[in-house]
């Protein structure tokens, strides 16, 4: 075979009539040299690529092996086949896994939202992992934490690792997220992490919740333990008995700052694959949860949570200086926050 090729090349060289046109021969040699050059270059490049990516070789082999199944090719960047170091995925080794992060602010319903997600057999949302200052102290610490979570090597009570089809966690905007937004966006886009923004429309209600929660941190109204989320109406009633006093002097400024923080996050993370959710919409319209499941690519299921809302009904019952607050917000762009926006 090798000989044949040699003969063939020799033959073509001999066949060429050398005298006919020296210019075209020169042209031929030039083209040949160029083709050779390009070929050698491409081989070199391939080799350096190979050297750089040996670290990921296992992942890629696994990915190629698993992708024989009929998978929508446009989804490829978002599908992962992690090989956890702490366990084997067993029967689900070739089920693709999608990565997500819930970006939110404290007291915006993200705890409740996460219990809903975790009621799904194939979703594993790992909580507020960056509440630990050490994990967010620098970008490399953030990345190694993310790597562990997305490789399914993070364990908490919510983990359902073997057959997880979507893995993520919740991340508050003030937990290093905005400080390192450039690097984090790059990581999200490189790894194909989908972003779920979860905000609250009524920022006055959020403020009441923040103040009441921080009061309970030391008051510990429920039999001497501090609780941020409750599972019974009795507990909810106990917690909502405390009515915070709102500083009406700084109120409009404070609301503006909260609003700006959310808008900044939307702007800074706009290049990621994302969906924007509002707590109020989720409460009013449970079919929004179908959109969420579609977005993170898991089979549709009925999602449930045992959590009970703490501050129900009209806000006037939950604020000590209601008259004052009512007067302050009337005529401002935040006037609508005064109204009751859901009835239970
Ligand atoms: C990043 O933070 C971790 C944990 O606080 C620390 O151990 C590590 O030395 C830091 N790395 C750099 C490059 O600063
Ligand atoms: C969801 O989990 C079940 C087992 O709990 C598994 O049989 C199924 O394949 C998983 N679905 C996906 C899409 O990974
Ligand atoms: C406090 O504890 C008592 C007895 O353990 C229990 O009956 C009661 O329901 C608890 N109250 C709250 C608000 O959790
Ligand atoms: C209310 O806010 C104003 C303006 O920020 C501040 O000067 C004042 O001390 C605050 N009052 C209380 C009771 O915190
Ligand atoms: C991030 O948001 C801030 C505030 O809106 C803005 O000044 C900055 O340009 C944004 N950066 C990117 C990369 O979007
Ligand atoms: C509920 O949400 C679904 C999905 O987002 C939407 O199509 C529908 O119009 C909403 N229904 C109401 C009453 O808002
Ligand atoms: C706010 O104050 C006005 C005027 O006193 C009153 O008519 C209105 O009902 C109050 N709004 C609420 C939500 O209590």
TrEMBL record:
Transmembrane parts of this sequence: 25-45
Superkingdom of origin organism: Eukaryota
Coiled-coil blocks: none
Listed InterPro entries: Nod_factor_sulfotransferase, P-loop_NTPase
Annotated keywords: Membrane, Transmembrane, Transmembrane helix
The protein, known as: Sulfotransferase
Originating species: Penstemon smallii
């Amino acid at each position: 075979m090798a000989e044949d090729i040699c003969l063939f090349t020799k033959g073509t060289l001999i066949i060429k009539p050398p005298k006919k046109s020296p210019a075209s021969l020169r042209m031929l040699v030039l083209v040949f040299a160029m083709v050779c050059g390009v070929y050698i270059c491409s081989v070199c490049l391939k080799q350096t690529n190979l050297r750089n990516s040996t670290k990921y070789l296992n992942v890629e082999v696994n990915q190629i092996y698993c992708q024989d199944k009929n998978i929508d090719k446009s989804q490829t960047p978002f599908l992962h086949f992690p090989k956890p170091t702490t366990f084997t995925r067993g029967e689900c080794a070739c089920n693709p896994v999608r990565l997500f992060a819930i970006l939110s602010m404290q007291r915006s319903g993200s705890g409740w939202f996460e219990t809903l997600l975790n009621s799904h057999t194939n979703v594993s949302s790992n909580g507020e992992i960056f509440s630990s200052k050490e994990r967010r102290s620098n970008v490399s610490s953030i990345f190694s934490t993310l790597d562990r979570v997305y490789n399914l090597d993070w364990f908490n009570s919510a983990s359902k690792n073997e057959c997880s089809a979507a893995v993520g966690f919740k991340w508050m905007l003030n937990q290093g997220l905005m400080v390192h937004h450039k690097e984090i966006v790059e990581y999200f886009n490189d790894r194909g992490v989908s972003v779920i923004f979860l905000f609250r429309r009524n920022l006055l209600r959020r403020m009441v919740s923040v103040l009441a929660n921080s009061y309970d941190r030391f008051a510990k109204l429920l039999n001497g333990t501090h609780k941020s989320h409750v599972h019974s109406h009795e507990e909810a009633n106990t917690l909502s008995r405390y009515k915070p006093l709102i500083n009406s002097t700084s109120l409009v400024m404070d609301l503006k700052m909260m609003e700006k923080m959310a808008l900044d996050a939307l702007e800074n993370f706009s290049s990621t694959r994302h969906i924007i959710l509002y707590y109020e919409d989720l409460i009013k319209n449970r079919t929004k949860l179908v959109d969420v499941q579609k977005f993170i690519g898991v089979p549709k299921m009925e999602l449930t949570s045992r959590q009970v809302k703490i501050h129900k009904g009209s806000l006037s019952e939950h604020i000590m200086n209601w008259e004052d607050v009512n007067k302050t917000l009337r005529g401002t762009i935040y006037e609508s926050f005064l109204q009751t926006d859901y009835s239970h």
